[in-house]
Amino acid sequence: MTDHPILVTGGTGTVGSRVVSLLRERGHAVRVASRGAAERFDWQDRTTWDTALAGVRRMFVVPLDGTTLTRPFLARAADHGVERVVLLSGRGVDVPGYIEEDPNGLGETHVDGEDAVRGGTADWTILRPGWFAQNFSEGFFREAVLSGELRLPVGDGAASFVDAADIAAVGVAALTEDGHAGQIYELSGPRALTLAEAAAEISTATGREVRHVPLPPGQFTAELIAQGWPAADAEGFLLSLSPLERGLDEHLSDGVRRALGREPRDFAAFARDAARAGAWPARA
Prior knowledge:
Layout: E1 6-9, H1 16-25, E2 30-33, H2 49-53, E3 58-61, H3 70-79, E4 84-88, H4 106-118, E5 123-129, H5 142-147, E6 149-152, E7 158-159, H6 164-176, E8 183-187, E9 193-194, H7 195-206, E10 211-214, H8 217-226, H9 231-245, H10 255-260, H11 267-276
Parallel strand pairs: 1-2, 1-3, 3-4, 4-5, 5-8, 6-10
Antiparallel strand pairs: 7-9
Helix pairs in contact: 1-6, 7-11, 8-9
Organism: Streptomyces johnsoniae
Pfam family, one: NAD_binding_10
Domain NAD(P)-binding: 10-177
């Protein structure tokens, strides 16, 4: 399989970009599937799929949220001779009521995608990470960190935030090593933190004051709408935070240890590294 490129969909995203970097560091040929690639890949344009899959035997799949396109893409991949698939899924796929309402179809994306992978002909590995630590440095919490206030309706709910570098390392192990076929790796960090505790770790790492301000749900959505968010998007964001508020992401998972033989990176280490890398620059 070493003569064939490894396909990474979502190869410019939080996890996919790290998978690409690790594979290249280890000398593997990588094909990054994205709309901005030289050979364009677009989940919603099936005419771009064959070029992306040509010659591929292994692939890391980051699904397109809110769609069930993973299944037909895997079927096309099987036609091209793909032999190994690593699927990025999500925590809570097998937990009834994890997302009480799902207007964006994220749950269906993962449920259908996992079912398609397990029913396919390729060797498969499924990754189910919890909340990314990088949500604070690259994702939807970053602007709040920069403002100094995480104004979120999650109360004292905690999450065992997982470093995207660990997710990528597990993915690369599953792509390039034996012994991972048929495994579902639930991925978390080594401890659960409330938003107040996460803010305190970032404050320590950066020297800037960051605090969590608990908000009632109605005030949270009203503030987003006042910032220009469509009401439906504000409600969708609120719903996505519900598992955190209900304590459904507090538990620790052993996937990093099982896959890599080491403990996952702690949130404090993530915060220090992100601060050194300039994730939260000081105000001018």
